[in-house]
Write a structure and sequence with these properties.
- This protein has 227 residues and is of the alpha/beta class.
- It has a single domain, classed as Carbonic anhydrase (Beta-carbonic Anhydrase, Chain A, 3-Layer(aba) Sandwich).
- 37% of the residues lie in helices and 18% in strands.
- It contains six helices and seven strands, in the order αββββαβαααββα.
- A hairpin with a 2-residue loop joins β3 and β4.
- α3 packs across α4 and α4 packs across α5.
- The termini are far apart.
- Keywords: Lyase, Metal-binding, Zinc.
- Its cofactor is Zn(2+).
- It catalyses: hydrogencarbonate + H(+) = CO2 + H2O.
Length: 227
Amino acid sequence: MPDSVSELLGHNEHHAHEFENDRFEEVQDGQAPPFVTVCCSDSRVLQDELFDNRTPGEIFTVGAIGNRVYEETADGMAVSGDVLYPLVHADTETVVVIGHTGCGAVTATYKDITDGIEEPAGIRHCIDLLKQRLADGVGALPDGLEESEAINRLVEYNVDQQVAFLRESDDVPEDTDIVGVVYDFQDVYTDERGLVHVINVDGTRDPDQIEAEHPELADRVRRLWTY
């Protein structure tokens, strides 16, 4: 057994000591989290930590390569059960789709669309799912971009596509609020590393319109690409 597992268990012991009093009392028998977050399963993105969440029952967290909200089923494409469960069974009313700068899944999908790449079957499946929604975005990219610039614009496009899929689904309750954001740890949007920037609210992508409709978000609304 590698020493790293012992270290991981040590971190858990520290966590348990911090939570040993009454931190779980209100959620012993169920949950009703106000948010479900759908985040890329990238080790650099600390899904709960980025919202400073240390409250059990506050956020239902979903991780998927490319912050993907959909999956392929026997009946066709559908909202992933991981995302849908809290909306249908736990009274959750808000979905936050979290992309991030320099996303490896978006990068791989971009490279596959433009040049073709070889990947194991499981990764290939994920890339093929993302390609269904990203191919048009690759075709619409402005000319003359560096690859990193293209990727970060596609990160936004991917978030938009995930939001759109949720809005298009009859399985998602009509009164669900859906927010798309990008987590920036590469100083792409500002020099304040680690901020989340709002790029889409219920399908609205225009920053001016978002700010007008949601003035409380105004200082956090930014986009690299309005297409």
